[in-house]
Amino acid sequence: MGSEEAKGHSAVSCENSRLLFRALQDYQFIEAVTMKLLLGVLFLWLLSSEGNADDQEEYGKLEALRSLQFSCEQAMFPETPSSSVHALRPADIKAVTAIGSLQRTPGSGEGLLQSTGKNFLELSVATLAALISNFNPSVLNLSPPPGTAGETPDSQARDLLHQAEVIVELMKGNQMMDFQNDWKLITVFFNAETPCSSYASTQLRDCISTNLEKVTAVLDYLYEKVPKAFVNLVDSTELTTASLACQDYSNASNPGRNQCNYVEHSTLHDNILRWSYQDALEKLLESERFDQKDDFTVVLQPSFQGRNLLLRLGKDDLITTSKTRVEILENYIFMAVGLWNNMMQPVGQKQPYGVTKIVQCPSRENPYLFTYRNSNYLSSLRTSNTKETSQERSYGTNIFCPDRRPSDTVPVSVHNLKPADIQVIAALGDSITAGNGAGSRRGNVVDVLTQYRGLSWSAGGNENISTVTTLPNILREFNPSLIGYSIGTGKQDSTNAAFNQAVAGAHAEDVPAQVRKLVDLMKNDTRIDFQNDWKLITLFIGGNDLCEFCKDPAYYSPENYTYNIQIALDLLHKEVPRAYVNLVTILSIASLRELHAVRNNSCPRLIMRLLCSCVINPQDNSNDIKQLIYFNRRYQERTRQLVESGRYDTKDDFTVVMQPFMTNMEMPKTQEGLPDDSYFAPDCFHFSQKAHSQAARALWNNMLEPVGAKTDNQSMENEIVLGCPSEAEPFLRTYKNSNYTYPNQTPNYGSQLLCEDRSPSSPPATSVHSLKPADVKVVAALGDSLTAGSGIASDTLQNVTTQYRGLSWSIGGDESLENVTTLPNIFREFNVTIVGYSTGTGSENDPNAFLNQAVPGAQAEHLPAQARRLVSLMKTDQRIDFGADWKLITVHIGINDLCNYCKDPDHYSAGNYIKRIQETLDILHKEVPKALVSLVDVADILALRQLFVDSPAQCPTYLADYLCSCVLTEDENSENLTMVKDAIKAYQLGIQRLIEYGRYDTHENFTVVIQPFLKNVQTPLDKDGNPDVSYFSPDCFHPSQKGHSQLAKALWNAVLQPAGQKADSFDFSADIVLGCPAQNNPFLGTYKNSNYTPVEPTREPIENWGCELSCPGRSPSSRVPTSVHELRPGDIKAIGALGDSMTTAVGSKVPDLQSDWKGLSWSIGGDETLEIQATLPNILKKFNPNLFGFSTGSSKETVGFNVAERNATARDMPAQARALVELMRSSSKINFKEDWKLITILIGGSDLCHYCLDKEAYSVQKYAKHLQDTLDIFYKELPRVFINMVEILEFSGLRQITASSSECALAAKKVCPCFLNPEENSSELQEIKRVNRDYQAETLQLINSGWYEQREDFAVVIQPFFRNTLVPLDSTGNPDLSFFAADCFHFSVRGYAEMAMALWNNMLEPVGEKQSYNNFTQDRSKLKCPNPEKPFLSTRRNSGFGNSNLSLEKTESSIPYWAAIVTAVAGVLVGSLLGWVVSRRGTKKHQRKADRENNIKITTL
User: Could you tell me if 502 and 431 are in contact, meaning their C-beta atoms sit under 8 angstroms apart?
Assistant: First the structure.
């Protein structure tokens, strides 16, 4: 490219960057313009690809990009750029470029991108330049020169050295930069691909060395020719290839090269190669070869290995769709952002590339790009003191068993098998049993490919027990003629392997093939008497399944794992006589993470991530880790169940025994308590000989321990002494010679009913209050998945969705009470002709569901529809005499409401819940004659938390969020869990008030009775005190048949118990005996026949709305603080407030709506004392009695610093702010510059209420702009101030209040027409709700933008207690209007007091942990005290948040991170794409390629 072209091109690029990033400073412009720009660019990009534009419907779905956040503060270009590369700031960089070898396979993602004339090099350069331009708008984007690698076929790809030469000349010729003095960012992408899939292990070092020389030559050239450069070195192999081996960058010039020997392909082989190449480069850079000058460095960034499979489309021959094209672009941007983030991380702390959510920013402490030197990185070359130990290490042992004789005669029973009776030994499994790396020297990772089968714990036979401890060597002490052990090294098909048929990389699905080969080998071995020789076979498998489970959880499910093992064991059972099979339990593989996490060992972390990504890569406590642990435990549990089924104990000469010593085995530790890597091969994944020796000892001892008493948590670091067979039982232990009884695989869940009187009423009952069990002719049920029977008999997670309605506690009728305990089966003992119960499985629509109309997932709002369908079914079914038959209907609902409560407290409020229950019961009351409705109280589901939180139970904790997020995933003291706890009580209280006051006792043939036994649920515990999961289905959420049986018994007893004496607790594990009707009152218990009188809890009369404050430390700071982040309540000297009628306290004295009672204002009022009236000033006066500025009374003369005005809107706030500043500046009562001030702002009610009347004036954008202008005034003019920005109230609850009375509706709708007038579910209501949320979100975004964090004496903090408003309810479950003014819109003095207390508590709660709701409950002791360790008002900084982490709350940012990147990248893409598309339409097909190349030349920069 000519210099004039480069000059003009760069000028356009710089000007575009300036204009675009100037626009980015206005976040309102972002929403309107950047999204359109992004979509337009993508459309053009897709249009220019090989497909038709009509097929590109998915081009706009870049949802991943929307979630990313770019929050770096803009930095001005430094006056003096850094002179050292080790102090290089992003703003110092003048030019960004890249070179690379990005060869592609046909159909690869890179090929898709290149169909537009663009490749990853250009996109990465554009993305990095876009990021840097936020710090230096004049940065140059120097895209790679045309015709370089990646745009031509592999055979013609230009090598890296040539690219380096071209890019250097390009930079020298660019007149927009000073080549000698401007800093450059150069990224070198290298590719290690080769035509050979892999080399044999003996050739690896030569291959790596050859490639290393080529990369070194490129870096040497840049080091010599380019001054002032920061060079990223990145392995980009997996961007475009399916596997990595070795790459010859000059194939074209050296066609005779790379005549290598093919070896069997394996994941282990590939991963070792990848690591070896990376390790060689690390050592090259750690040698400081490129750090001899202060203006040049090379940093090895993490490789692009392990990225999304979309980047390797050529491997899997996936069909390319418009969606995948968009996703490829997303992935490329993600990776470029990931590269940037790693530049912000010190060497040694860089992270693998993931779906990057946040752009990292330079920190104040370290504002530069990290190099080896400024990272204080200790080179492994300098710090390694590890001496290479001899391979001839001794891991021998002694065995002191006196009796080593075989049986007198060859035993015919496996249960009488002595160690010396074993003639043949064999093993099956994976690389652990194959012995990979067992004999490798420390640090020799490549040698892990060697299979040291002679050292294998379960099958190796090198030397003898005095030097090598293995199971065969132990057995050879009893029988020196043992056959089948492996020796030396080699693969499974080598002679040395013998009967060790384990295959490196094997999964459970591969074991049957291993068995087939083993059986054939043994049958064909002339040394063996196949029919008569006793054989010991050890199977250990599952590590590779767990390492890959996250890639396909269904494929690697515990069920499939166990099924494959079953196939293998079935084959052995069928074909191998006289065999004792060790099935060794899979170890707890998550402990490998400990080894990876420790930094001071020699473990190659890259290879650990590659070998076992599903274990190593997930974050601590993530759902991925929880799922791993669950799968691991289920692997263990299901294999145990397989063996204990007795499937392999059907003949006397064969058995399978679980050897569980690894089940709970922990990571071995050093004396310092750190993971001991000496137990592992150099890759820190496979076992070293040390571990093999310990595993052999542990396995031997397990074989001698009785079944049921075997060690399941072997400590590897302790000495393991070899045991001896006991004199009494000198046999290898089996279930039979251990006198062990397998657990019953098909338990009976029947019950006995000992009631003598089972007769019906005579004459027939005419009143529901004299109804005997035998009088009931029809049973029915309404509810959710509990009543539908979800998962009752399932043994897999996949089957939990099956609805076992015939086993349901309240309505199932499978079999009889003798073996299935359900409520209908109990009633059938009294009346065999009862109808309505469900049988079998299926949905509510299936005929066998009958009158079980429960629906999985149902909530209270769905219950009325169920009731209507039930009534219809009963009326039309010929088996039911609808008018004459007595009916028992069980209703239970609410769990799903509670599980979702925290997501929408208004929708799932107690008021709404009770309203739906009432609607349901009203339908039944009106439509159904002769019915007793058994309403089972809301369950206290908090007990289920014990199964999911810090529990050793085998529960799928990773599903907790899906099952019941508001309960199972929350911290114990979280606000969400507190909300649910309160909701449970409110639900239960609401039901009690609805039912117990006789609403459904208006005639003799109908009643509703609450069955309260689920009000307090206890978690069942096993003998060890852990949760007993046998009462639950595999999801640990729905009860199993065992649990349903207990529920049915408890329900039956509750139905019989008199009202007022019913059990209100339930223990799953209790011994529940079925009761019988009382002789003197043999009826189902109702309120009337129990002579029950409801008692309303009495409440003390409330005289005032004050509260108590018992904080011990109320003194101010010893010296007036200079930082707002160290501000104590006692330091505040002046208080002020801005706002509308809420802050002027309109309506505080009912029924007066005309006066502004500012002295009672929640945020600024100072009337009375705290004990009588809670206000923020009254609280603060407890810390500083001389506080000034609060309002008193209602006159204008005593308003103090309360500048709020009724009917004010957001646009009035700047004027109020100026007025307040002048009031404070002119006041003689305060020191304007030195005194600390507290200002509270709440505004937006009037804006929202009138939004529909003028959407432009009250738009979200203008609302935010007015707030910004207000804060800007304070930020500029007011010293020493802490500002409370109270989020606008969530108005949804007001609709519930106004609906509670016609007077309220009339008054409030005049005040707030736009929110209260729209019809429910109307588009107008949905819009105003969205605006409400957007007001909140924009306020949060404004505060969290970091714009107000540069002053040490200024802070604005969001106080979110109004974000989710819970409507206060009275004793009848209706809105409590005592909290509200006469207009049902403003608050009363009681409501204002609640606001004051909530605000105070918010001020003390750390940012990120603030309570975001106020539930309006009277409690005089609810005020919090400052934390003694940090007694300050909480700000972002003292809560632990820095400027680079600005998204604290779960609210989407209104300034998308991707906007900055896409806007800058668009400058590169738009020009070339527009030109390309236009030229394509006007050019013949055979000219397309030439025209595209021409356009690229014109518009590359």
Answer: yes
